[in-house]
Design goal:
alpha/beta, 93 residues, 29% helix
Length: 93
Amino acid sequence: MTENYDVAIVGGGPAGCAAGVFCSRAGLDTVVVSNGRSTLQKCAFVENYLGFPAWIEPGSLLELGKRHAREAGCTMVEDSVSSAAEGEDAFVL
């Protein structure tokens, strides 16, 4: 894959998706790279999370976060990042 983005976020869990939403809303061309193995999936349920004071099933929370990021304009990529290097004027993943 050879693409250029203003921002690359490695990790597509709730924090990565939230970061992607705010970057996209700020007008930055944003990609969120996720290997699909969020540690959130190890939880039975999520309690007292913003917007879900009782609880929410982890898979549902992940899907809602990904959908929100896509709707905000993020490019979502299911892949792993194996290296990062500083290029001439950008980082190369």
